[in-house]
Predict the 3D structure of the following.
Amino acid sequence: MNRSGAREAVDAEPTGRVVVTRDGDRWRADIADLEVGCRAAALIRVDGWVRGVLGLRRGDWVNYEFRTGHRRLDGLVRDARAGRRAAYVAERHSQQATRDLMTDAAQYADLSMRELAILAGLSHQRIQQLLAGGLGEARTDLERIFRHR
């Protein structure tokens, strides 16, 4: 966990469980926490409805449980989604840890940008992109330090 408590926010499921069931030629979605549901012919329509109800953007994680009517397929989907979720959480942790490193690096004026890149496991070009992308007040401190190198 970092100083800001981001680990808890990242690890927590962003939504309650959404059960999506194949029912003949239609899909049914139920969000038990909200006691709402919908039916649609296309899974993409169900996904759009779920995201709308939950206030999520396209790339946001939805805690789906799919029931296709095929046990083997359901297991494969569950395993693939579990792997994707783990990768998503790991990436978010990596981003936060990198932000923390970049924020605190301003205290260590004896580091070059290339040294910081090696420490972070990134290219020096990526470090420059992060600086340009806005790290808040840390960006100003880092730019001032590296400008004098």
